[in-house]
Specification:
single chain, alpha+beta, 6-stranded mixed sheet, 4-stranded antiparallel sheet, elongated
Length: 439
C-alpha cells in the first residue's frame, strides 16, 4: 500500500532524529561528568595493576596475530580460542572452546565464565577471526601492523588485560562476568540461530554488554548498522555476439546485471544511512562465484549467458531493511528482453543496534570513568560510520556499548595497523568501567 512506504520512511526519520536528539541533548549522567572526579583507593590499585602489566601488551598482541585465524582457517581459529581460554582460566574463569557443527562451516567460539553475585552481570564480547590470514605481525616503535591488530585481536587483548588488572588488584572476586569471542564474526556461519546460540545464551545470564571492536577517537558506540548478504544471478540467451539486441537473442546477462545494479544505486541512495556494495561479479558463458572469488569462461565474440553478483547491504533498522529489499526486488523484476534474474538474501543477517536511552546511560558511565582517569570526554559515534557487530544480537534487550578496543587504520585490508600508545588508556578505562558495573 502507498502509505506503508511513507510510514517506513517516517520511522527511519524518527530513528535518526532520536539519535541526533540524544547526541545533542545533555547525556544521562553528563552533568556529573563535567568535572574531573576522583578514584577510590581500590580504583587506584586497579590502575596501578594496568601500569604494571602494560609492557606485555605488544607481546601478547603479537602472539595472537602470529596465529593465522582467518575465518575459514578452522584450526587457527580454534588455536587462538584455546590460547585465550588458557589466559582467562588463569584468572579464575571456566574457559572452553565450543565447536560448531561441521555443517556450519565454522570453527566455534570461546566461552569463559567467572561466577559471582556482586553487582551487575557483565557480558564481554570479542571475536577470534580475521578477514585476512595472520602470521604477519610487525612492530616499529609504537606502530604495529598485521591481520587483526585492530579488528579485533587488539580489542581482545584490551579485554583480557582489563580482566587481568582486576584480578591482580583483587577486584575480580565474586563478580559475574562472561566472555564470548565468536570465531566467525567476519563471515558468520549459517544458520545464524546456531552460530550465535552461545552468545544469546550468555546474554540471558547478563545485565549489560560491552564489546571490544575498535575505538574510534574519543567515542563510544551506542548504535550500529545491521548487515545482510545478497546474491544476484542473471541469465540470458547466448550465441554469436553479432546477434546482440536481436529479437532472437535479446540483451544478454551482463547488460541485465548492469541494469539491475544501476537500479539498486538509484533507489537505495535515496535512503539515508543505507549502503549497498556489489563486491564480486563474475559473468561469461559459464560463471561461478564463492564468498571470496570466482571463475568465468567465454570469449569476446560470445554473449555471456550467466552473470553472478555477491554483495552486502547495511541498514539502520529492520524497517529500513524491509524497505531496501522491496526496492531491490522491484528493480530485479523488470527484465531486459530474453533475460531473467533472481535476487536472494543469505541467512547471515546481523540486526541493527538501536541507540536506546540505556545505551546512552552506559556511555555516560564510560565518559565519567574517562574523566576520572584524566582522559578526554567520550561522546557517541554516529552509527552510519560503523558496520555490523556481534553486540547487536544482544543489545537490545541488554544495555550495550561497543568501540572499547584498540583502534587502527586499514581494517579489512592487507595494510591494517594500530598505534600502541593508546593501549594503556583503553585498558584502564575498560577495567574501571567493569569494576564500577560489578560493585
Amino acid at each position: 500500500m502507498p502509505n506503508d512506504r511513507s510510514m517506513t520512511s517516517r520511522s527511519i526519520s524518527t530513528w535518526l532524529l532520536a539519535l541526533l536528539a540524544l547526541t545533542a541533548a545533555p547525556a544521562i549522567g553528563r552533568a556529573a561528568a563535567d568535572s574531573k572526579g576522583s578514584l577510590t583507593p581500590e580504583e587506584q590499585r586497579l590502575i596501578n595493576a594496568v601500569d604494571a602489566r602494560n609492557v606485555d601488551f605488544a607481546a601478547d598482541l603479537g602472539q595472537a596475530v602470529q596465529i593465522d585465524s582467518a575465518t575459514e582457517n578452522l584450526a587457527g581459529v580454534r588455536q587462538l580460542g584455546e590460547l585465550f581460554a588458557g589466559q582467562l582460566a588463569e584468572l579464575g574463569f571456566e574457559s572452553h572452546f565450543v565447536p560448531l557443527p561441521a555443517s556450519t562451516g565454522r570453527a566455534g567460539h570461546l566461552v569463559a565464565e567467572h561466577r559471582g553475585s556482586k553487582g551487575k552481570r557483565v557480558l564481554l564480547i570479542g571475536h577470534l577471526d580475521t578477514v585476512f590470514p595472520g602470521a604477519n605481525f610487525k612492530r616499529e616503535g609504537d606502530q604495529v601492523s598485521g591481520a587483526g591488530v585492530a579488528d579485533m585481536k587488539g580489542g581482545d587483548i584490551v579485554l583480557i588485560h582489563a580482566l587481568h588488572a582486576l584480578h591482580r588488584a583483587g577486584l575480580l572476586a565474586d563478580t559475574q562476568i562472561i566472555v564470548v569471542m565468536s570465531g566467525d564474526e567476519e563471515a558468520p556461519g549459517s544458520p545464524i540461530e546456531i552460530t550465535r546460540r552461545d552468545l544469546l545464551d550468555a546474554a540471558k545470564r547478563s545485565d549489560v554488554a560491552l564489546a571490544f571492536e575498535s575505538a574510534i577517537g574519543n567515542t563510544g558506540t551506542v548504535a550500529r548498522r545491521g548487515f545482510a548478504s545478497w546474491t544476484l544471478e542473471a541469465q540470458g540467451a547466448t550465441g554469436h555476439s553479432s546477434g546482440m539486441f536481436s529479437a532472437a537473442v535479446g540483451s544478454g546477462s551482463v547488460f541485465e546485471t548492469a541494469r539491475i545494479l544501476q537500479g539498486f544505486y538509484e533507489q537505495l541512495r535515496q535512503l539515508e544511512g543505507i549502503t549497498i556494495n556489489p563486491a564480486l561479479i563474475a559473468g561469461g558463458v559459464e560463471a561461478e562465484l564463492t564468498r571470496t572469488g570466482g571463475t568465468v569462461s567465454g570469449k569476446a565474440n560470445i554473449i555471456a549467458q550467466r552473470t553472478l553478483v555477491r554483495g552486502d547491504l547495511r541498514y539502520l533498522s529492520a524497517a529500513q531493511l524491509a524497505e531496501a529489499r522491496a526496492r531491490m526486488e522491484a528493480v530485479v523484476s523488470k527484465h531486459l528482453p530474453r533475460t531473467s534474474a533472481e535476487l536472494k538474501f543469505l541467512d547471515d543477517a546481523y540486526p541493527a543496534m538501536a541507540p536506546t536511552p540505556e545505551n546512552y546511560a552506559l556511555l555516560a558511565q564510560l565518559d565519567q570513568a574517562s574523566r576520572d582517569l584524566g582522559y578526554a570526554e567520550i561522546t557517541a559515534f554516529d552509527p552510519r560510520g560503523r558496520g555490523a557487530g556481534d553486540v547487536a544480537f544482544v543489545s537490545p534487550p541488554l544495555p550495550g556499548l561497543d568501540g572499547l578496543g584498540l583502534g587502527g587504520k586499514g581494517e579489512h585490508t592487507v595494510h591494517e595497523s594500530a598505534d600502541l600508545t593508546r593501549a594503556p588508556e583503553l585498558v584502564k578505562r575498560s577495567a574501571l568501567l567493569i569494576y564500577r558495573l560489578t560493585r
